Amino acid sequence: MSRRGYARADRPGRPATASAGSAPNTVYPARRSARACEGAAVGADIVIIGAGFAGAATAFHLARLGRTDVLIIEREASAGVHSSGRNAAIIREHADDAAEQALLHAGANVLRRGELAAFDRRGLFIVGPGQDEAARYCPRASGRGTWHPDDGTIDVSGLLGRYLEGQRVLYGVTVLDWTHGAHGLTVRTTEGDVDCRLLVNAAGPWAGEVGKLPLTPYNRHLMVSTPMPWVDGRWPVIWDGYRHFYFRPESGGLLFSCCDETPGRPGVYEEDPKILDTLQQRIETLQPALGAIAIRTTWVGQRTFAPDRRFVIGFDPRDERVFHVAGLGGHGVTASYAIGLRAAEIITGKLDGRDDPFGAGRLF
Ligand SMILES: Cc1cc2nc3c(=O)[nH]c(=O)nc-3n(C[C@H](O)[C@H](O)[C@H](O)COP(=O)(O)OP(=O)(O)OC[C@H]3O[C@@H](n4cnc5c(N)ncnc54)[C@H](O)[C@@H]3O)c2cc1C
User: Fold this and answer.
1) 6-85+157-215+309-363: which CATH topology?
2) What is the CATH number of domain 121-150+218-302?
3) Separation of 353 CA from ligand 1 center, angstroms?
4) Across-strand partners of 31?
5) Which ligand 1 atom is the nearest neighbour of the CA of 304?
6) How far apart are CA 178 and CA 199, in angstroms?
7) Could you give the CA distance from residue 301 to residue 93 in angstroms, rounded to a whole number?
8) Angle at the Cα of 225 (from 220 to 228), degrees rounded to 5?
9) Residue 191 CB: number of other CB atoms within 10 A?
10) What gap in Å lies between CA 364 and CA 362, rounded to an integer?
11) Are 47 and 62 in contact, with CB atoms under 8 Å apart?
12) pLDDT at 38 (0 to 100)
């Protein structure tokens, strides 16, 4: 096993500035210090595949529970290249599923304190059932619904960097497969073999392929307008999920989603040439007071779901040395703290993972 690529992520680099056409959330460059590799054993008690919110939050809580012999293997040169760096950064505590709602509540409550990363309690208005007026909170917004003052937006790159602080991360290395030995697993990677006792599949859009699970990544576009003088950066998120549309302030303009959902292939971010027409139509029919909008940046991200759209957190019923933290769908930022905690508690035996509503057994 070559030791090239080891880095301890305790000093996050200066966030890179987003360029037009790329996801705007910042990422941390890999630190490939040769000195950081010295003395590092090529192996770990627990190997985690993926340095997105699933893998990073799990490693964060494992460390808090005293399990520090953990190695994260990340195929990209930095963290947050895929779903965790391509999202809308909204902390929104609302899910149809009661079990997920509990994790969203627990996760959001911690993030709202702002101790892990800067949180903007800008509020969120849900257009739908309810008698409150959206225009009370955002003068350009139309519709009735309910006001949720404690929701808001978070510094996603800051949060991911916080989870990864002090973690041993092997960047630029892809996990290929693994085999069983007398004492555990041998994980085969593009840089050689790594021995471990437990392997955590936190591979995001690749989690289905990696863990042989029925998970599907779905593509979704986000669009950011040019700066507009009438936008107030303190406006809340306006969420019209029933009619597939949301917007919020971003970089002096507005960030939009038409809540599109197209099955995709992991890591393939094809833009739909019709997405701007769809956006214009949604604005005209749902939020006409926004008027004409010029879009500066569009990007695609992937939200990965199990068939029942519930998170997958648990041991693989086919292989007790494999644990999944996957299928985080559209809630992986909001619930990250609670998801990582639940995963770490099951792995360390603090929580009984049998009959867990998120268990992987339901998928077979
Ligand atoms: C458009 C969009 C908007 C969203 N908005 C929000 C929002 O506002 N609020 C919210 O809470 N959530 C939101 N989400 C959801 C959230 O972003 C995801 O749930 C979360 O980022 C998933 O994290 P992850 O770690 O599972 O996946 P990822 O971030 O994709 O991480 C998986 C990592 O695994 C690595 N990997 C994969 N295979 C291998 C391998 N074989 N070897 C080594 N490394 C590997 C990948 O390179 C990747 O870095 C949104 C998502 C999208 C796409």
Assistant:
1) FAD/NAD(P)-binding domain (3.50.50)
2) 3.30.9.10
3) 23
4) none
5) 19
6) 9
7) 21
8) 155
9) 18
10) 6
11) no
12) 33
Domain boundaries, the chain: 6-85+157-215+309-363, 121-150+218-302
Nearest-CA residue for ligand 1 atom 9 is 90
- In the numeric block, which tokens belong to residue 274? 């019709």
Q: Which of ligand 1's atoms lies nearest the C-alpha of 331?
A: 11
Across 197-212, b (16+ Cβ under 10 Å) vs e yields ebbbbbbbbbbbebbe
The dihedral through the CA atoms of 155, 173, 201, 259 has a sign that is positive
- Using the mean position of ligand 1's atoms as its centre, give its distance from the Cα of residue 83 in Å: 3
What is the CB neighbour count within 10 angstroms for residue 63?
Answer: 17
Mutate to test the pocket of ligand 1, among 84, 93, 210, 223 (most ligand atoms within 8 A of CB): 84
User: Looking at this protein, which amino acid is placed at residue 22?
Assistant: S
CA 59 to CA 38: how far, in whole Å? 22
Q: What is the CA radius of gyration of the chain?
A: 21
Averaged pLDDT in 10-residue chunks for the chain of 364 residues = 41 29 37 33 89 98 97 98 98 93 98 98 97 98 97 98 97 98 93 96 98 98 98 98 95 98 97 97 97 97 98 97 98 98 98 94 96
Q: Which residue's C-alpha comes closest to atom 3 of ligand 1?
A: 87
Residue list, ligand 1 pocket, CB within 6 Å: 49-55, 73-76, 81-84, 86-90, 174-175, 202-206, 210, 220, 222, 301-303, 328-334
Which helix or strand (DSSP H or E) is residue 69 part of?
none
Q: Which residues contact 171 (CB under 8 A, 6 or more apart)?
A: 5, 7, 30, 32, 51, 74, 76, 77, 78, 79
Instruction: Note the ipTM here.
Output: 0.99
